[in-house]
Design goal:
Layout lengths: L1 H9 L1 H44 L10 H4 L13 E6 L23 E7 L2 E11 L2 E8 L1 H49 L18 H47 L5 H30 L7 E5 H18 L3 E4 L6 E5 H18 L5 E9 L2 E8 L30 H11 L3 E8 L4 E9 L4
């Protein structure tokens, strides 16, 4: 849960949404308050103008009877919006104020506009002297005016509240659309193999992201140059070591023809065996340097039966020396779209590894099957197998499982993994005999083409 919350707080879309929500909410409240004040002021002006206009209808010669003008209870319409007209009598004079008039209105109220609370009701009142000794008060309750202002503020606030989720959806869609090229670039990088150091295309990326992508491309370029230098060094060193090692091998062969003691001949045999291991290591180093190049040239349709035949022709002498039965299981004519040289190197290293670790009199089987559009290549042997905890490490260069008497370079499966990654294939290891936890089963799955 903490990890999810951390990702959400680091999300640009989430932070933008939160800030937009907060900003819109603040603007909505401010807009509601401003709308209330403006509408209140406008309603006040409208009410005051209305009271002035009604007061202008009265003059000193034709003053309406207050008993008639104040009969609000017998008139139709909303009582809160009615206008009440009341005669202001001089102080101390008898009052015949009818019901429904302005109760408790001071008789000495000066001319002009006033806001008074009479009883439990607030009134807006306009007082006017229409003739000497004749004054009239026109009043209207303020509830209508306040209600108009409140409704206007609520409408403004409601509009903003409705717009908040709409804006969030629009902003979310826009952000996802703008960041889609960036996600596509990240997905392309994630799918690349370790050897693919091509530059990231920035054609459709936003201009704000391009400096970051350009920095990544410069880093990839520097890493590519560094890796290329290391590979050239390994290849050059292997090439340089082959010549003196070949010369030592020739001298050892010439020395073998000379007369020597039994002890010297045993030491010579050990020397020749060490030189053979060194030559094999150099060959594997050269092969690893070659397959690590990211070239995808010479892709063609390759029949696996032909590859199996060539590999067995090269390695059959090693299998015969250990009396190992090597054969191809099944006769399905399966083809795969790869470089034939890479595929032959992959299968050859798998079979060579199986021959080395399969005891005398053992068995090795090769097979190729089609599963839908995919092609599965499988090599099984009757050797000791590889424990589950070791199956990830054996693909590392120069790593060898402890406790094995067979001497190897530790590069065979590393070469296989490198080629499989280049060809887009998946490689998996398992016991050939799961119940006995023995034997090795190597499965390489090639993705088919449409």
């Amino acid at each position: 849960m903490d990890g999810f919350q951390g990702r959400m707080t680091q999300s640009l879309q989430f932070r933008l949404s939160v800030w937009l929500c907060g900003t819109i909410a603040v603007i909505a409240v401010a807009a509601g308050m401003v709308s209330f004040l403006l509408t209140f002021q406008q309603a006040l002006e409208v009410q005051d103008n209305q009271l002035r206009q009604i007061a202008a209808l009265f003059d000193g010669r034709r003053l309406p009877d207050p008993s008639v003008a104040s009969l609000g209870g017998k008139l139709e319409g909303d009582p809160d919006s009615r206008v009440v007209v009341q005669w202001l009598r001089p102080a101390g004079a008898a009052s015949s104020e009818p019901a429904g008039a302005l109760p408790g209105l001071p008789a000495d109220l000066p001319d002009g506009l006033h806001t008074l609370k009479l009883g439990e009701t607030t009134w807006r009142i306009f007082v006017k002297t229409v003739a000497p000794g004749s004054r009239v008060a026109i009043g209207q309750r303020t509830e209508v005016r306040d209600e108009i202002a409140q409704d206007s503020a609520q409408h403004t606030l409601s509009l903003f509240l409705i717009l908040i989720p709409v804006l969030l959806l629009v902003v979310g869609a826009l952000i996802r659309g703008m960041f889609r090229p960036l996600k596509a670039a990240a997905l392309d990088l994630n799918r690349r193999s370790d050897q693919d150091l091509r530059e990231v295309a920035d054609a459709n990326l936003p201009s704000e992201i391009r400096p970051f992508v350009e920095a990544i491309n410069r880093l990839l370029s520097r890493v590519g140059r560094s890796v290329a230098v290391q590979r050239r060094f390994v290849a050059d060193a292997a090439h340089e070591l082959r010549s003196p090692l070949t010369a030592l091998s020739l001298q050892a062969e010439q020395l073998d023809a000379a007369d020597m003691s039994t002890q010297a001949r045993e030491r010579l045999a050990s020397l020749r065996q060490g030189m053979r291991r060194a030559r094999n290591l150099l060959d594997q180093l050269l092969t690893l340097a070659r397959v690590q190049e990211a070239s995808q040239e010479n892709i063609q349709t390759v029949p696996l039966q032909r590859v199996f035949r060539k590999v067995l022709e090269d390695l059959m002498p090693l299998a015969d020396a250990k009396n190992i039965d090597v054969g191809v299981v099944g006769h399905q004519n399966v083809h795969v779209q790869v470089s034939e040289g890479d595929l032959q190197t992959l299968v050859k290293n798998l079979v060579d590894n199986a021959i080395r670790y399969t005891p005398r009199g053992g068995q090795i089987n090769l097979s190729a099957e089609r599963h839908g559009r995919d092609v599965m290549v499988q090599v099984t042997d009757t050797g000791p197998g590889i424990a589950p905890q070791e199956r990830e490490r054996v693909f590392d260069a120069f790593y060898r499982v402890l406790g094995r008497e067979e001497v190897g370079s530790g590069l065979g499966l590393s070469i296989v993994k490198t080629i499989a990654d280049r060809l887009g294939a998946k490689i998996s290891l398992a016991y050939a005999n799961e119940s006995a936890r023995s034997g090795l089963q190597v499965v390489v799955m090639f993705r088919g083409n449409d």
